Amino acid sequence: HVNIIDSTMPASRAYIDQGIKLPFIYNADIQTAGRGKGERKWSGDILGNLYTSTCIPISMIRNELNDNDILVKITAISIYEQIVKYVNNEFFLKYPNDIICKDNKKLGGILVQPYKDFIIIGFGINIVNKPEQVRKGGLQPCFIKEHLPEGTKAPNPVDLSIEVTKNIFFNLNLTSDEVSKLFDKYI
């Protein structure tokens, strides 16, 4: 965990380059140069939102699931399963890598990249506020806290990243068919 960094993805690659062999999570309070799909900028300047990379050795992922599309779906399912603990039925998944609020606004996104002997799963979730800048033609942002019942505390970003990562490991036990069916259920 760091207070501020350019992006958790390259920081994770640097950590892997140092010889780490175990799974790890790289969290940041603020991310100044986060990226999404297609190298689009992911705004990361709001303290209390989630900016993280979960890094899993490829050896821990069955061949059947070692596919970026399937790993994005596993991550999306894992995020969804945690978010609905706070706000039931307020969110859904949008293929290929978005978490969407019921009003068709973007809550978060997922990026999966292989690197050496690891899969790096980066994800960002708007928890306490939404970014001001929005990509032209892109979905408007939303955030979890605006969907919580009055007086309900928003999830802590580090705790949420840990719980999502636990879910990812649990969901790595599914077959690819089970992953697709579950993803379709939440889409």
Core attributes:
8 strands; globular; single chain; alpha+beta; 187 residues; 8-stranded mixed sheet
Which class best fits the helix and strand makeup? alpha+beta
Tell me the fraction of residues in β-strands, as a range: 25-35%
Q: What summary fits the major beta sheet?
A: 8 strands, mixed
- Helices, by number, come to 4
Distance between the termini: 31 Å
Mean pLDDT: 90
Which stretches are low in confidence, meaning pLDDT under 50 for 5 or more residues running?
Answer: none
Large-scale geometry: globular
**E-strand count:** 8
SSE order: EHEEEHEEEEHH
Gyration radius, rounded:
15 Å
Q: How much helical structure, as a percent, in the residues? A: 25-40%
Word description of this protein:
The chain is built from 4 helices and 8 strands, in the order E-H-E-E-E-H-E-E-E-E-H-H. The chain has 187 residues and is an alpha+beta fold. A hairpin with a 4-residue loop joins strand 6 and strand 7. The protein is globular and about 45 Å long. The model has no long low-confidence stretch (mean pLDDT 90).
